[in-house]
Design goal:
The protein is an alpha+beta fold. The chain has a single domain (2-165), classed as Nucleoside Triphosphate Pyrophosphohydrolase. It is 22% helix and 40% strand. It is built from four helices and seven strands. The chain has helices spanning 61-73, 138-141, 145-160, 162-165, and strands at residues 2-15, 18-25, 48-49, 52-54, 75-91, 99-114, 129-134. Strands 1, 2, 3, 4, 5, 6 and 7 form a seven-stranded mixed sheet that branches. The protein is globular and about 50 Å long.
Length: 167
């Protein structure tokens, strides 16, 4: 079984007393009523997830998380702490059907600068849009179980370490 190592960021920002997290919506699936009758008349719910991607050669997981956040959200962030490693197996549906064992290291990052969704046009293949969502709602809104768990850990951290994240 092949292995993939990825990293992602949970970028938080306190806005008017509410902690928010940067999340990305995947681009809409190409299926339309013309190509797939099962979607006719149905509103397709966007898939919301955290920014993440493969760790490049010569890059640390933290460096990859910071890069992926910048590329997928338009934000610059500073590291706070590592939150968790999530592990799962998936099957490549877009190519050879190979099963992949994947590890994703997630880091809690504090917003520093940039505008959400200010990303390069070529990133629109991977990201439909980036947006801020309330951190306390993220476990309900995110699509994937491991990311829901990571969002809960981030919420616990900011609740108990708010002093570290101020300023």
């Amino acid at each position: 079984m092949l292995r993939e190592i990825s990293a992602g960021g949970v970028v938080v920002r306190n806005s008017n007393g509410t902690w928010r997290v940067a999340a990305i919506e995947l681009p809409p699936a190409p299926a339309t009523a013309a190509t797939d009758p099962s979607v006719r008349g149905k509103k397709v719910k966007p898939v919301l997830c955290l920014p993440k991607g493969l760790v490049d050669a010569g890059e640390t997981p933290l460096q990859a998380a910071l890069r992926e956040v910048r590329e997928e959200t338009g934000l610059i962030a500073v590291p706070v702490t590592k939150l968790a490693d999530i592990k799962y197996v998936y099957t490549r549906t877009w190519s050879d059907g190979e099963r992949i064992f994947k590890i994703v290291s997630f880091y809690l990052l504090k917003y520093d600068s940039g505008r959400i969704n200010d990303i390069a046009p070529e990133m629109r293949v991977e990201v439909g849009r980036a947006r801020w969502v309330p951190l306390d709602e993220a476990p309900k809104l995110l699509a994937y179980k491991g990311e829901k768990d990571v969002a809960r850990k981030a919420l616990e951290y900011v609740t108990s370490h708010a002093d570290v994240l101020q300023g």
